[in-house]
Structures are given as structure tokens and as C-alpha cells.
Design brief:
homotetramer, mainly alpha, Fumarase C, Chain A, domain 2, Ribonucleotide Reductase Protein R1, domain 1
Chain lengths: 496, 496, 496, 496
């Protein structure tokens, strides 16, 4: 292929092997369908502008539809290993006669920027589906058990009584938040670079709004230079993913701890566990470790993109447009893996309610409730009430029985007296604080661990999930519809 | 202050010096006003719940208003260097009589989470104002010159003709995008953790919606554990800032290049420049270097927060709630510095239109236009037309005069003939391509570099800026109004 | 101060407040003594070159010694907030008569690069001392208990029997490795930039070796441009620190888990613990959380420096020389804090040997040993032996008593038989595997957990620590000696 | 394959597809030969310990030698997709009779840790070869031109006169430094984990020193837990690589600027350049952009490894041992690519000496020299001398001819007089400062830009390169020799 008016050597082997060919292989797999869509959108405009006839546009569209990855790969070397040129060459071969004006006034800069964006847009939308599935599974599993007490930990010490349902509802909340943030990002990035040319705009009267519509975008990137120079969309998506991943690493940290031999509160079925041959009592969870480790890559990918974009000129640079994004597909795959794997974990996790209850009853979670009652019913100042409750708990523990259910009204009377308060009916202050189920029910505030609060929250989350799903479905449908409309418009008689 | 029922040693000196005291100093400066607001919101609820009388709530509010940083600092040691406890102690001293029930059923977990968020919310809003000012200044400066040609570079090579107005409009676009993304973040994070207690919720019938409204939030964080465990808001804000910073580093890279002795296209006034004593012709721009370097910290801060949150339990951990955010204020200050400094640069930048035009005329930017005309008017296939244009340019350059304005119709005829095309009136194809001003005007697509496109875009950007400003003003007003309403409600007779 | 032949405006307020003044404040605190040392080294060379007389050099040295931070700060505004210029001005005031040739042929580029390096060198050396103290304390504590069995975990599941001494010896190993790596870095970076001038070298016959010696460096940076452009030393140091910090985060993760209520294997004294008022049984360890969180910053600082150096020209740039290193002191302080705090933790940690032993005896750690014996003594193929051991353990667990000490020879016979092996004297195979202390002793390989291996390793580590200390002491002494010699040489009659 | 005494489900498809199979594919390609070497080292010890006979060891060695990637891959599913187990199975098939005691007392933990290390060690050594080649080429090219003047830039402004040789010598310095740092790392990490077992050591009397020697290591990792838990070696290597990459990004930044149309000081041949069709005067350098971008990944890889290791337990975790290192091979490949590509650039770079000289003569670099002479010869105080020089340069520039070679003694006299100094023979002060070649020669200090200094430095660098090469050759030979010795020892009659 003759690409220049100047005699130029072919690219050095090093360049071909290290950059051009890997890029080509990647694009043929991931971007080809988007390049075809974009070319069709351009055909529509060429036709509208009178540069191409209906028939020419139709034949070009048909030729584009006929392109196959194998064919393009076979012709890559003859097209400088550039997919856009390879497509041009192969389409040319399939045409009954040349179409001289095809690609007039066109640039590869906005073309590549656009194809990358459309690929990224699809990935984001796929990831949102997975996040929705995670939320769905978490909500479903949460609803199965909003009453079994388990210790809730702060600073790694058992602190309050919670339930699996309460915890899984937090997982769902994180998934919903991720989906919601992604949605905002999707809407912000779904703008078409087409019509920006190499950086300064184009010379024909391209309608950038029509172009955008034809590829399912909300509109054009307003500024031609921004359209070709910026890869902010990748930073935005990567940041959403990295931050969500940090959250997942925290949930996985809990599950790893709770699944450890020291806690034994949860377990995964054998097919999701690793087994030691000679230590069969040992059930390792490499899946949890792998998933948590995998979230670590997500932070690194953000750093990767930012690092490669940093301190480059604000213009079209292959450094930013291609090299900086080399690991984008790896990031998307890792994200899908984390989401699918974590969903599997949530779905299959067995909560060992017996051990959970035993652990919850082992410690005194009622000190806070006791102090509340001392203040509200006996008028003991709050800070003093906490001291009294603390002294009471210490006394009971010193007595050797700190198990839930065991109360010692005399010790409470003594502790209160030491602080100058005389208590009548001391046993009445201990009722709630001694019963872990009562501890659960005592939490009245919205979003709390009480079964009724959790049930209400699950319902509200389900509603939010439904709304988010509709919003994502709309966006997916809009892309499908745009593709179909663009395809249809290029069929014989299809012009608007 | 007696804080526990168990005899405990005072914190070790190391803990005090390394963690507690620096934290205290930071919170007294940055968080005190938010702690006061939150305490007032809680007073409103205590009153509504009948836990405190109107008079008690009023007196507590007055005492809170009377707190000073100096007083708190003086009392820090006696309150475990914890600002919340220090406030409780000092308020207690200011009361005419004790209020035993104050702080019953309360936790410091949601309190701290909330104060940090309100501080962060204010910072985000301040940063948005600065981003708006940058956009404003960029638009204003852009409108001053949408006609002076300068080279636009791709791959660091002069490629097309653009203008200062075109470029500055891209700067404005970046600032608008930042502001817009921050707005989405603001709305997502402006949720109140209050009422979540230590992690599992609270026991009194707190109305979390009323609490949220009293501190200017959209509503409560739906889930109690999420409310105290998550610091996603900091990741969200930091990612927005880091990504915007990466963009700024790119614009600054351009300005640094253009201000270099090799380009000489822009300059800054002496007060923004560094001067070499013995080389007075040398005008350094440490300001540009400093600003670009400063954007690098912003990426690191995101890594910092993510790194410190990573693989921690999803619960209240001082590791996440405090240590991970230790550099948040430094990040906010660096962001303000970058925005203010870059605004100053945009405002004071002098575009050396003479050198810009000379540079623009030095090279042949018209090859693309020439190829367009060959295709559209002479039916030369596009790829061939580019080869012809290239050959023509090569011939002209070989002839020794590649300056804009100089055309060589004979060379064009020869180049076309070599490709098998006979051209009539060859000079007519060269008109546009030889005139850099015509090159500018030739760009018709929206968002392009032509003066009219830029003018249209500037108007549209100004409109967007106006809308964004209104949106930010609404949010700032909402916070102010919430504070005023909460204050007023606690004055004598102020209860709703 | 007149600094240029061209009329220049004073720096803009923004530049002063954001960059110059903070830099000045930092340098006056951290770099002044190094600037003084460097100026003295230069004086020695001026004298040797005959540019200054002995008397002039002596008076300048005395004036340099008389400089105070307050005096310099007072004069900062008059010296462009540049510490080197401020020193020149204040020294000039202190001289009885002008010394015209002072500072001839000098540049601030190599001066600043040098002062920063000397500061960094000192920090590295201080940090090495702390790392040595950590190793010392870890070795000392390790030697106290090399026999108490505790579970060793892999994949968070109890897997083998280890001891506190074994674990602390790993901590010491990490500290030794850090110190050793830092030493290599120290020796690599301890090269003097002096004599490089602005980037291309100097015009007088400066002896760069003498200059290097006078400030305690091994020699000069070989290349003038590298001397002023590179800040590799900061990357090297920061990487060593960040990586060591990642290791510390892992040890702290163990200690946090072991100190949790679920494990209860270690505890810290009250002065290093956090106490909950109403839950006195709860002992939080904010110190561990803070330290682990603090290690996270160390990774971020490396990213910070790399990010700010990235894609800058390889020349003297204030972006790299100053802005990129703005957080270096914060990093050094955080590193010292992590080391001192972790040393405190290791020193004060109480190992709860009763709970450790109970935990170690709870699970079957002997499966591996049992399989070994089956293979070695009964010729059961290794993989089969593991299956047999596993079946045996399963059978015992199914029988309800998996506690160490309890053996069931009949079950072993049955398990072996199922695999086609007939065992004589089955009880003899169980001896080692049932006794956790025997499990410890059975580990024969060097570096293993057996008391004798640990004791041998501790001795060897102590030796390595001794060697490292000597090496660091030599380096610290070399710097002290160089300073003293340089000081002495400038006293009256001090010239070599 | 029966791996456990407990009935276990096969791993879930998700685990197989996402983790096990990719890991297997990676290990078969990259780690197989190291696994074979390690197994042979273990055979030697089994024989020495009398666990295996000579004949058994010999047959096992032969079977190990016969393993092929295809065979292992075919059997992967039957071996839990674990390469070590797959090897065991396939070796078993190849044996004439079973060897029951094979693999007794063995663990996969130290095995995997060891195989990964040996792979990494080889990569480091390969990278060092490439770094040496870069240094070689840079030195060679540097020696071709140590006399052609070109501007040296500080703060992007032309500041001093340098030469291609001077600059390339800095490139060589960076490559040498990288190699030297890597060598220190190599020696620190080349320790064998073998004999550590799962974490606590092993029960047979393995000689860890012999094992280490058999695989070419300096000795064993001293501590068993460190041996299996730590992946510090990857952090160390990644940090060396990332930091070196940051330096390369800076050199590439210079070359990109100098190759831009605005500078035009260097160019690459057509086969290393990108060509624009219609703008043939435009020579893009995507190679430079790609390489610079590629260095950005190197920083991200360090973050990746650190991020995934962070806050994990210090024990064997698949999270650290496998997932955290998933991108290690990608990092090694990227590093090789950067080094090979940059070497190609340095080799093929054409320095446009005409344009360099023209640029060097365009500006006044002599102000500094002039000030030096005024101080040294006319006794003008240094700071005043700089002002006089500056005024002189300003005057000359105002006169319209600032080109090198043009002097104006009268203007110098006037400038000096304004500062109160009377100059005799003013022309004599201007000689050096007006001649760019003289400017070069005037730099006397070692490491400076003068042709003689550069020549001396090149010789010294060549010597250092020679020493480094020998050191690397020794290490490569040591590994080869160890492999050969281990192989030989297992041949019939080969036992020591």
C-alpha cells in the first residue's frame, strides 16, 4: 500500500513486533465491530453530504459487513499493521468498482479515539450488568437470614451484634453504589469524537450530532482537540473500578477472617475451597485470596493509565492514544473476574449460625445498652453510666461468667453505688443487654441491624436496583437501536 | 476524665505525639465547626425525642457556640486528645447545671465519619468554585483571540493551524468537565452517617432524615455499617482530582514547550517568571514547572488513600477513618494551588502572535486540504490524492521555499500526472492550502478551530458554566441554609 | 538584592506564598547545616585555587558558622526567598570587608542538589539506626521464647506449629534486610554533585574529588548533567522504604489478627491499647492500625516522587529538584514513626502462651509428619501416605476428639488398609504427630521452627546485625570526620 | 489424581478458568525448566540422605528431562492444573517402577517460591545484558561526537553549550547505574527458599546449603517462614526497573523535544519514523512515544505488586505467591522492550550538527563566562559581575545582534561603568564568551562538557562497563555451572 508521497522505509522489525502487530491483534478482536459501525456512520454522512451515492454507500456497507478478522490479519502486513488501513484495503478489494471519494476529509485520529471509546463503553455496560448481578445475589442471600446473631467487629474486636443479612446488605449497597457511579461516568463519557479530524476539525459540513446518534452516543465531544487528545474516559472508568475494588478488598478481608480456622463463622463448599492432602481439617480459600489479590491490580491499572498520560502534550499522541491504554482490556477482564467471583462467593457462602451465635454470646455486647438504660431510666449521667456499665461488666467477667444470659444484679448495684447512684430493681436494667436477640431488635434507627430495619432496607435497595437496571437497560437498548438504525439506513432504500 | 470502668494506663507518649496530638491539632483547625454543627443537629433530635428539654438543648447550643480552638487545645490532654471528648468536657464546664442525658445512645464512630465528610464536602465545593474561575478566565481569554493562527501539533510535529482561542477553549472544557464530574460526586457523597452509631445502629428513635437535613445532607447513608466503615467519598473525590490533575499536566506540558526558547510562542510577565542573572535573555518559568509537578502529587494522593484502605476489614477502623486520610487536607490544598496557579497562568499568558504566525507559515499545513480538493473536485481517489499532495509538498520543499503563500502549480500538475491524473487550472487547488487564515476558516465542523466554530463553542461553554455555577450555588446555599435553620431552631423559642 | 541586569518584577504573591516561602521554611530547618558545610567545602577549594586568601576563607567560614535560622528568615524577602542568596547576603553583612571573588564560577544548581542529597543521606542513616534497633529488640524478644508452641498459619488456616521466637526472628530478618538494602543504596548515592555547575561543568580547576571528600562523599557524581538533573537517589531511598513498609504491613496484619478477640494470642499493655468505656472487655489496638495504615503512605510517596519526575526533561528543572521532593521530609518522618512504633510493639507485645498452646493443640498439625513416617518407615508411597494420613485425621475428627495427644491406632490401621497397606505397630507412627512440642523439635532443617534451629539463627542474625551496625557506624563516623576536618581546615592556620 | 483423604469436589469452573489454567499455561512456558532443576536438586539430597538410591534418582532425573510442555498441558486437568502435580504424574508414568519415597517430606510452598525466584533471577540477568548493550551503544555513539556544540537546556531554556557526546554519556551513566543497582539486587535475592517446607521447616536432614548450591544460589534464605512468605525479591526488582524507567522517560522527553519540528536537532531514519501521507514534511516518532509510554507501565507494575502484597498475612498465601505476581512476566517483557527500543534509538539517532550549532550560536551563553572573567581579572564582585554581564547582553540584544561571535566592547565598558567599574581592554573579556567552541573547552571540571572531560569520562565509563559485564558474566556462568553440575551428578556414576 502506498501511503505517502515520500519514499519511506517500511517500519523496523522492532516496531512491528513490539507495537504494531500486538496492537493489530488486539484491535481485530476487540475493536473491529466498532470500527465497522463508525465507518457506517461516516457512510451515512458522506451520502447526506452528496459525496457518495446511495449505491456507493450501500456497497461499502456491505463490504464492511463482510470483513473478517482472518482476512484482515492476513492483509495486515500490507497495511502497515493498521486496522483502519487494512479495512480500507480489504473493502476496496470487495468493491465492484472503486469509490474515489471514500474517506475524503477523514482522519484516523478521531476514528481510533472513537473505536476505543465504543469498546470501553460496552465494557462499562457489561461490568454494570455484573455489578447488578452481585447486588441481586447479595440481596437475595441477605433476605434469607436477617435474624441470626453474629458478632460485629470494630477494630477487629467483637463490638455489637449483627446478622448475615445486615452484612450482605452492605455488600449490596457497595455494588449499587458502584453501578450508580458507573452510570454517571457512562453518561459523561458517551460522547462521540467523530468529526474532530486530526485535531482541528474537518472541512466538509459533517453533522457531528448525526454522527454521534448513528453510533449511539449522546452527542459529540464539544471540542475537536479534546475529542482526539483526551483519554479522560479511561481514567474515569478506571478510577470507578479501582475504588470499587478497594471496597471489595475490604469485604473479602472480612470473609477471609471469618472463614479462618480461628473464627470459623463462614465456609465455602468444597468446589470453591482448596484442600490440604495430609491436613484434611484444613480448608483453604484460595478463591478469596485470588479475588482479593485481583482487586489490587485494579488500583495499579489506574496508576498505569495516569502514569502514561502524565506530562504528555495535550494533542493526539500515540503514547496516550495507544500505549497508555495497552492494559485496558486486561483491566476490564480483571474487573469482570472480581465481580463474577465475588458473586459466586456471596451466593455459595454458608453462614455457620451455630458458631456465629456462640461467638456472639461469648462476649458482653450489652454494655452500651445498659448504659443507655442507666441514663434514660435512672438519670445517671451518660459518661458516668458508661463507667458504671464498664465496672459491672468487669465484675461479671472477674466472676468468671461473661456469657450472654448471665446477669448479676448485685454487681450492678455495687457498680452504680461506687459512682454515687442507688438503683432500684437492678435486674430490670439488664434484660436487654443480656440477650443477643434483644440486642439486635433494640437497634431502632433506619439502616440498623434490627431484622425490621434490614428488611426495610433490603426492600428499598431492591427498588434502587430495579431503577438502576432499567437505566442500564435503556442505555444498552439505545446502543442496540442505534446500530440497527445505522445498519438499516444503509440497506438499499434505507436512506432517511 | 474518667472514660472507662477499667483502670487503664494513659496512652503512651509515642501514641500521643505521633497520632493523637497531630490529629487533634488538625481537627481543631479543620473540623471544629462541623463538629459543632453536628452536635446541634443531635440536640434537635434529643429535644424532639424528649430526652432533653428546650432549655437544656438551648444551653448546650450556646455552650457549643462558645467553644474556641484555644480552649479545646488547652484541655486536650485531659480528654485523651480527642476533640469530641474535649468538646464534651468544655461544654460541661460552661453549663450552669449538668445535663445527664446529653450524649446518651451516642457513638463517636458516626460522629467522626460525619465531621470528616462535612469538611470534605466543603473542600469539594471550594474547589468547584476555583474550577469555575479557571473556566471563566479561560473563556474570557479565549474570546480575545480566535483568529491568530498558530501551529497545532500532533506527535510534537506541526500539523494543523489553530488559534489561542481554540486552545483555551479546550482548557475551559477540561475545567468544565472537572466541575461537572465533581458535582456528580458531591451529590453522591452528600449523605449523612449520623444515626449509625458504632456500626449497627442506635437504640433511640432517631430520625436519620431529620438529622441529615439539619446538617445540609440529601439524606442518610442508607446502611449503618456503610455509614461508619466506608470512606469511599474520599476515594471518589481524590480520583476526580487526580484525573483532572493529569489533564492539567498535559496542558502545562504544552505551555512549557511553547514558552521554551525553541518555540517562543507564549510568555509570562516578569513577576511570574524566573530570571537568570548573567543570562538575561533567559526567562525560566518555574511557576509552570511547579504547577505541573504539583499535579503529580494528586495522583499519589489517590494511591495513598487507596493503599491505606486496601485489605482492611469493612468496619470502623482508625486505620481507615483517620490514618488513611491523614493527607486529605494536603491534597485539598495542593488542588487549590494547582487551580489558582493555572488560572493565573491562563490569565497572564501573552500569546506572541507574530511568532505564532511565523511558525504557522513555516510549514505546509495545506496538504490535507489540497488532497480534499483533489478528491472532491478532480475525482482523484482519496488515498491517491494524499500521495499527490505529499509529492507536491516534497517537490516544493526540494525547491527551497516551503513557506505558506508560495504555490507551484507546475509541481502540482507533475505530481498528479505521476499518479495518472491530469489537472486543469492547478492553481485553483492551491488557494486554500496556501493561506493559513484560510486553513483556519476551512474547518467547518462544530468544535473545530475556525473562528466561527470557536465563537459558537465559547458561547455554549459559557452557558454550561452558568448552569454549573447555579448548581454549585444551590448546593452552597443549601448548606448555609441548613446551618442557619439548625442554629435558629435551638435559639429560645426556636423549636419547630 | 540586585540579581539581574534586566529590570524584573518581584515574584508574584502567589509564587511567594505557594512555593518560595514554604521552600525557604523547609530549607532553613532541614538543609541549613548542609548548605553551610558545602559552602565551607567550596571555600577550601577557592583557597586552594588561589581565588581567596586564607584570611578571606577563614572570615567567610566564621560568618557561615554565625548564621542563624531566624536571621535568614528575617532576610528572606530581600533574597527572593532563596536560602542560598539569603546566606550570601547575611554573610556579606557579617564580613569586615567585601570578598569580591566569593562565589565566582558558582551555580545554585549543584549546590541545591548537593544540600538535598546530604540531608537525605543523613535521614537514611538515621532510619538505618532505627531499623537496627528494631532488629535488636526483635532478636532480644525472640530469644525469650523459642519453645512455646503456637499455630503457624498458611492461607489463614492453622497449618504447622511455630513459636514466638521463630516469628520474631522473621521480623528481625526483615529489619536486617531493610538495613542491608539501605546500606547498598547509601553507598550508591553518597556521591557529590559539587563542581557540576548549572549542568555542563565549571571553568575554574575545581577538584571534584576534594570537594566530595570535604563533605563526606565517596567521590563526585561522574557526570555534570547527571549531578544536577538526577534525583534518582530519592527514588532509590523511597523504593527501599516503600518495599520495607509493605513487609511491615504484613507482620502488622498478623499481629492485628492475633490480637483480635477471635484469636487472643497476643496483647499489648494498656498504655498501648485503646479502651472502650462501656465494653471494658474490649481492648482495641489503634496503635497497630495506625502503624499499618502509616506504611501505606510509604508506597504512595514512592509513587509521588516517580510521578513528579516522570516525563520531565533530563536537566535541571525546579519541577524535579524541588516540587517533586516536597514530601520527602514527610516520608522520612513517617518511616521513623513506623520503625519506632513497630519496635515499641515488638518490645511490649505479650504472647499469651496458654492460649497459643491451646490453639496449637486444637487442630491436627501432625498429618504431614504422619505421612512422612508412613513413607519412610512403612514404604507407603508419599502421595498415598498423605491420603492415608488425611483419612486418619478425618476419622479421628469424626470420632469427636481431634485434640493433640489423642491418637487412635485402630483408625490408622484402617486408613492404611483402605489404601492397601498393612501397618504393624500403628501407634509408633503417631508419637511425633500427636505432640505439638515434638512437632516443633521435628523440624530439622536450618531456619526451621525447632528451638535449636531458631537459636542458631538468632545467633547468626545477631552477628549480621553486628556487622551491619559497624558498617553504618563507619559511615556515620566518616561524615562526622569529614565535617570536622573541613571545619578545622578553615580555622586560622588550618589550611592543608 | 487422588490428592486428599477427604472427598472433595473438583474445583469450580470459575476457579479453573480464571486462575488455575492461566497459571498453568504461564508456568509451563516460563517456569518448567526451573521446576525441573529444583526437582533435580532435591533428588541429589534424597540420594545423599539415603532416601533414594542412585538408580532411582537417576531414573527420576531422566524422566524429568523427558517432560514436555505439551505432555504436561495434556495432563493438566488430571492434576488440578497444578504444574508440580502434573510433573509428578507424568514422571510417574515414565518410570519403570514406582519410587515410593519420592517427594516425601516435601511441600509445594518452598518449591513454587523457588521456581518463581529462579525465573525472576534469569529475567534480571537478561535485563542486565540489555542494559549493558544500551551503555555500550551509548558510549560508542558518544565517542563519535564530543565536539559539536548544541544548546544545553535548563528549565527548557537554552543555558549552556554541550555536545551529543556529553549527553549520550549521561545516558550511558544511567544505564550503568541501572545495571549496578540490579547487580546489588541480584546478589541480595539469589537465595534459595528450598528446605523451608510449608513455612516451619522440614523433618529430614536436608542440607539447605547443598540445595542452594545445586540451583546456583548463594545460599539459603536464612528463615523458613521468610523463604515461603516473602516476595520481597519481586518488589526489589520491580523498584529498580520502575526507577530506571522514570529516568528513561526523561531522556526520551528530551529526544522527543529535540526531534520535534520546533527544535529539529535530531532525527530518526525513516524505518523508525512515522510518516504522514499528505504532510510529508512531517516526521512523527511514534517509537519515541511508545517507548516513553511504556516506561509508565513500569511504575504501575511496582504499584501492582506492592498493592497486592499489602496488608496480607506474613505467611504463604496464594494471594501473594501467585496473584500478586500475575503481571511479573508482562513487566519483564516491557522492560526488555524499553531497553531494546531505546538502544535502537540511541544507535540510529542522527544528530543534525548544523542545526545544533545554529541553535547554539543563536543565544548568549557566554554571560556566565564573562562574569567569571570580570570577577577574576577585573576584581568586580561576583554578584555585580553577573549584573554587568546581564546588562551587557541586554544591550547587545537591544542592538539587534545577539548572535555568537558578535561582540560590543563599548557596551561592556558602559555596563561596567554603570556599576562603578572601569574596564581596560574590554574586548579581552569577550573572547571566550563569544565562541561556542571556546565555551565548550572552558569547562574544566571533571565530568564536564569539554571534549577532553567527556573523553576521559567515556574511558572511565567503558572501564566500569567492563567490570559490570564481568560481574554479570560471572553470575550467569555460576548458574550455568550449577545446572551442569546438578545434571552431571545425577547421571549414572555422577554422585559426588
Amino acid at each position: 500500500m502506498k501511503l505517502t508521497g515520500r519514499l519511506a522505509a517500511a517500519p523496523d522489525d522492532f516496531i512491528r513486533q513490539e507495537f504494531l502487530e500486538p496492537q493489530f491483534r488486539h484491535e481485530v478482536v476487540h475493536l473491529l465491530r466498532w470500527y465497522v459501525l463508525i465507518e457506517k456512520a461516516l457512510l451515512g454522512e458522506y451520502r447526506r453530504l452528496g459525496v457518495l451515492s446511495d449505491a456507493q454507500a450501500g456497497r461499502l456497507a456491505a463490504a464492511l459487513d463482510g470483513l473478517t478478522p482472518d482476512q484482515l490479519t492476513a492483509g495486515a502486513a500490507g497495511a502497515l499493521s493498521d486496522i483502519a488501513l487494512a479495512m480500507e484495503v480489504e473493502v476496496g478489494k470487495a468493491l465492484p468498482e472503486p469509490v474515489p471519494a471514500w474517506h475524503v476529509d477523514r482522519s484516523r485520529n478521531d476514528l481510533q479515539a472513537c473505536a476505543q471509546l465504543l469498546h470501553g463503553r460496552e465494557q462499562v455496560s457489561d461490568i454494570a450488568v455484573l455489578a447488578g448481578q452481585l447486588a441481586e445475589v447479595a440481596l437475595e442471600r441477605a433476605s434469607h437470614d436477617v435474624t441470626s446473631p453474629m458478632p460485629g467487629y470494630t477494630h477487629l474486636q467483637a463490638a455489637q451484634v449483627v446478622t448475615p443479612g445486615f452484612y450482605l446488605s452492605a455488600v449490596a449497597e457497595h455494588a449499587l453504589r458502584f453501578s450508580s457511579r458507573l452510570l454517571g461516568t457512562y453518561d459523561r463519557i458517551n460522547l462521540s469524537p467523530l468529526g474532530a479530524g486530526p485535531m482541528a476539525g474537518q472541512e466538509l459540513a459533517w453533522d457531528r450530532n448525526l454522527l454521534a446518534r448513528a453510533i449511539g452516543c449522546q452527542g459529540p465531544v464539544p471540542h475537536a482537540l479534546v475529542a482526539v487528545a483526551s483519554r479522560d474516559w479511561l481514567l474515569d472508568v478506571a478510577a470507578d473500578i479501582a475504588s470499587a475494588g478497594t471496597g471489595f478488598s475490604r469485604f473479602l478481608t472480612d470473609l477471609m477472617a471469618w472463614g479462618s480456622s480461628a473464627y470459623g463463622l463462614v465456609e465455602l463448599p468444597d468446589e470453591l475451597a482448596g484442600i490440604s492432602a495430609a491436613m484434611p481439617q484444613k480448608k483453604n480459600y484460595p478463591l478469596l485470596e485470588r479475588l482479593r489479590g485481583r482487586t489490587g491490580h485494579l488500583t495499579a491499572f489506574y496508576v498505569d493509565f495516569a502514569s502514561c498520560q502524565r506530562n504528555t502534550p495535550y494533542s493526539n499522541m500515540v503514547e496516550v492514544s495507544k500505549e497508555a491504554g495497552v492494559h485496558a482490556s486486561t483491566m476490564f477482564a480483571a474487573t469482570r473476574s472480581v465481580l463474577a467471583g465475588f458473586t459466586l462467593v456471596v451466593e455459595k457462602l454458608r453462614w455457620r449460625t451455630d458458631r456465629m451465635r456462640a461467638a456472639a454470646e461469648e462476649d458482653h455486647f450489652g454494655g452500651f445498652s445498659l448504659a443507655n438504660e442507666l441514663t434514660l431510666r435512672a438519670g445517671v449521667p451518660w459518661r458516668t453510666a458508661q463507667v458504671v456499665a464498664g465496672r459491672y461488666v468487669s465484675a461479671v467477667l472477674a466472676g468468671g461468667n461473661g456469657h450472654a444470659g448471665h446477669g448479676d444484679p448485685a454487681a450492678l448495684v455495687a457498680a452504680a453505688l461506687e459512682a454515687g447512684h442507688v438503683l432500684d430493681d437492678p435486674g430490670s436494667y439488664l434484660t436487654n443487654s443480656l440477650d443477643v436477640d434483644a440486642q439486635l431488635r433494640a437497634k431502632l434507627s433506619s439502616g440498623s441491624t434490627s431484622p425490621s430495619s434490614v428488611a426495610a432496607l433490603l426492600a428499598e435497595q431492591r427498588e434502587r436496583l430495579g431503577v438502576l437496571r432499567e437505566q442500564w437497560d435503556e442505555r444498552r437498548a439505545a446502543v442496540r437501536d442505534a446500530i440497527a438504525a445505522t445498519d438499516a439506513s444503509l440497506l438499499p432504500g434505507g436512506a432517511a
